[in-house]
Amino acid sequence: MLFKLMQMEKDYRNLTQEELLIKIKELEKEVKKLNNQIIKDDRYGLNWIDCPEAFEEESENKIPILEEVKGKAISNDDGKPTHILIEGDNYHALTCLNYTHKGKIDVIYIDPPYNIGNSDFTYKDKNFLMEYPNGKPIKKDDPLRHSSWISFINKRLQLAKDLLSDRGVIFISIDDNEQANLKLISDSIFGEKNFVTQFIRKGSGGRQDSKHYAIIHDYILCYAKNINKGTSNNYHFDNQINSCIFV
């Protein structure tokens, strides 16, 4: 809804009064529809702008296909596990893997950008997390900058969940910038009951951009696909892990 209002802000000057009235009526209908849906669902959770990425426009006409580069293969002895390194956008990679490995992955580890500033995003769409849909720059201290990050991680966690086996678990690294948002969005996707634990990982020292206290740690959130598939009260790993993905 907010995205549509932002789009309208760019082109309303070219509309006649009659056309503006039509637009307003259309938006009023959508607002009413959304309000009814909110009342019907009565949900608790996050609200954010669904910011489009470059790959979404490409995906309308193109389907990502994995192509083997045999010259870069590292041979293994027969009978040992085969490892695959996929080079490309992680959304495309996760999409492709859902065609071949859906429900077959035991362990996933994701190390997403921490959203500490624009420099930690190096994806194809350089404006992602830098501009709102209407082209307005996103300042680092703008609270709404989290919307783009949530939109980004939500799409990838949805795909990751589909890859997990019934006994699968996922680990997600994060720091204080997005930890609270990641916990809420992960609870929504994997289910709060499937939250296993949050690890605190000690680093080598405080970051140079620390203003008040030297921050020497980040977090790793762990969720299960189905926590009832764990072993009694302890979720542990054994030699039966068949497949693992690092994103």
Automatic annotation (TrEMBL):
GO terms for molecular function: DNA binding; N-methyltransferase activity. SUPFAM superfamilies: S-adenosyl-L-methionine-dependent methyltransferases. One of its GO terms (biological process) is methylation. Gene3D superfamilies: Vaccinia Virus protein VP39. Keywords: Coiled coil, Methyltransferase, S-adenosyl-L-methionine, Transferase. Transmembrane segments: none annotated. Residues 17-44 form a coiled coil. Residues 105-235 form the DNA methylase N-4/N-6 domain. Belongs to the N(4)/N(6)-methyltransferase family. This is DNA methylase N-4/N-6 domain-containing protein. The lineage of its organism: unclassified sequences, metagenomes, ecological metagenomes.
